[in-house]
Amino acid sequence: MPGRDRVALVTGAARGLGAAIARELHAGGTRVAVLDLDEAGAVRLAEELDPESGTAVPLAADVNDAAGVDAALTELETRWHAPDILVNNAARTATGSVWDIELEEWDAVLGTNLRSVLIATRRCAPAMRERGWGRIVNMASLAGQQGGLVAGAHYAAAKAGVLVLTKIFARDLAASGVTVNAVAPAAVRTPVMDDMDEAELERAAATIPVGRLGTAGEVAALVAHLCAERSGYLTGTTVDINGGVFMR
Ligand SMILES: NC(=O)c1ccc[n+]([C@@H]2O[C@H](COP(=O)([O-])OP(=O)(O)OC[C@H]3O[C@@H](n4cnc5c(N)ncnc54)[C@H](O)[C@@H]3O)[C@@H](O)[C@H]2O)c1
């Protein structure tokens, strides 16, 4: 493990896919900042990764709050340095009929799931560009390509926005060694499903060609690949990870 030179910031990393991604990057030799609205959860994961706090730190912030994100990044820069790797993973899963979503709820979901990507990327990318190396991975969703079947229109619209923002940033940063890619999972077992009916989840799994839900570890392995040194020619793409539900 060569010196843990790289610093990764994973948003929404207190649980679910974000936590799995933070674990994977940390196991691969990267220092990891665990950012989440859930401060206790972020502290818990950072302590699990490194009880000495030398290679994993918690950061508490709301990704939709530009000042809060800026303060968290300043804290990280003081401690280590600006992130070499940014995983925009934090999001709110939201459901509801397109006819019934309250406009305030629409704005809140677009804020947490899309505006947040703009905020964090604009805050983190300049240092990557200056350094001539960077990896940005945005968590999108099958819902952003097909419209949500279970997810609401606000969630799906935000994720569609994430896909195009990925391309815009990828093109802009390509010449400076910074790659920007999106990962689009479909149904992956995370705590967000704990409240769902198990029989309904089983029925959903039966419609997936692979015959099961995905695991957080499978998504994390893909994200780590996109963040690897040797992935420098891979940019502006959306990688589907959905058990064969959607094939291009
Ligand atoms: N699980 C799936 O099947 C699936 C499918 C497609 C896409 N995704 C995407 O993958 C990502 C992770 O999903 P998950 O299932 O692990 O979700 P999750 O709800 O289990 O975890 C999300 C994490 O983000 C944090 N978070 C929420 N709002 C935040 C905010 N405003 N600021 C900071 N942190 C915030 C939460 O506290 C939580 O720790 C999301 O972008 C989600 O849209 C997941």
TrEMBL record:
Annotated InterPro entries: NAD(P)-bd_dom_sf (IPR036291), Sc_DH/Rdtase_CS (IPR020904), SDR (IPR050259), SDR_fam (IPR002347)
Gene Ontology biological process: monocarboxylic acid metabolic process
One Pfam family matching this protein: adh_short_C2
Keyword field: Oxidoreductase
Sample GO molecular function, one term: oxidoreductase activity
PROSITE patterns in alphabetical order: ADH_SHORT
PANTHER family, sorted: 3-OXOACYL-(ACYL-CARRIER-PROTEIN) REDUCTASE, 3-OXOACYL-[ACYL-CARRIER-PROTEIN] REDUCTASE FABG
Assigned protein family: Belongs to the short-chain dehydrogenases/reductases (SDR) family.
Name the record gives this protein: 3-oxoacyl-[acyl-carrier protein] reductase
Organism of provenance: Amycolatopsis cihanbeyliensis
